[in-house]
Specification:
Blueprint lengths: L1 H20 L1 H15 L4 E7 L5 E7 L15 H4 L2 H8 L7 H7 L2 E4 L6 H4 L14 E4 L12 H12 L4 H17 L14 H7 L5 H21 L1
Parallel strand pairs: 3-4
Antiparallel strand pairs: 1-2
Helix pairs in contact: 1-5, 9-10
């Protein structure tokens, strides 16, 4: 009953109330992002959701658009500003995802929406994490977030999918608040941004360079298909 009907109803109510109550904060953050990082204020990116359906996720920008002499964007670590790091460490950059929850793209609690280029590298078993709506927070986030391995992250996601209850969701929400206040596990050790799943598999020699290249092409094709359907 909870998983099928009540969870979605609570998502609608909580996201709507959250957007109304937090509207002054959203406005202030929008102005600060515009002043410090420029336009656009929102960072939009395609992510795989329930059943692998790709949607556009909204976040506040945390990086600038600086490019090298060839016109290519600099690495994430060089574009992530001090202000951006504060947004990420406090999870304030995630607040626009309340719009995704209200729309039905996401849930308040569930596996975090990874990149399309992460999804294509997952096995059929691992992709079961996409059998439910992806969440603003989830079991993996309160058990290490970006500081744990990809194997553990997916293990927690699958564990959550198999045991969705109101009490579990409530517990995850409370633990998330604690994590945000103490700013734990925001990034991997020695990295400003999390490592892509495919990059991890290649680095640990679990896949070949040819397999990596093929899957990256597949991810680009999936995104192009969604863009052409708009």
């Amino acid at each position: 009953m909870y998983k099928k009907y009540i969870k979605r109803l609570l998502d609608i109510i909580i996201s709507l109330v959250g957007l109304i109550v937090l509207s002054p904060i959203l406005l202030i953050l929008s102005i600060m992002v515009r002043v410090k990082l420029g336009s656009p204020v929102l960072f939009k990116q395609y992510r795989p959701g329930k059943d692998g359906k790709i949607f556009k996720l909204y976040k506040f920008r945390s990086m600038n658009n600086k490019k090298d002499e060839n016109g290519k964007l600099l690495p994430d670590s060089e574009r992530l500003t001090k202000f951006g790091k504060i947004l990420r460490s406090t999870s304030l950059d995630e607040l626009p995802e309340l719009f995704n929850i209200l729309k039905g793209d996401m849930s308040l609690v569930g596996p975090r929406p990874q990149l399309v280029r992460d999804m294509v590298f997952m096995s059929d078993e691992q992709n079961k994490r996409h059998s439910v709506r992806q969440g603003l927070t989830g079991l993996a986030q309160v058990n290490g977030r970006n500081a744990i391995s990809w194997e553990d992250k997916i293990k927690y996601d699958l564990e959550y999918v198999e045991n969705i209850t109101f009490l579990n969701d409530l517990k995850i929400c409370f633990l998330t608040v604690k994590k945000v206040f103490v700013r734990e596990d925001v990034s991997q050790e020695g990295m400003d941004t999390a490592e892509d799943f495919g990059d991890y598999l290649l680095r640990t020699e679990k896949i070949t360079q040819d397999e990596y290249n093929e899957k990256r092409k597949e991810a680009l094709m999936l995104i192009e298909k969604v863009q052409n359907e708009k």
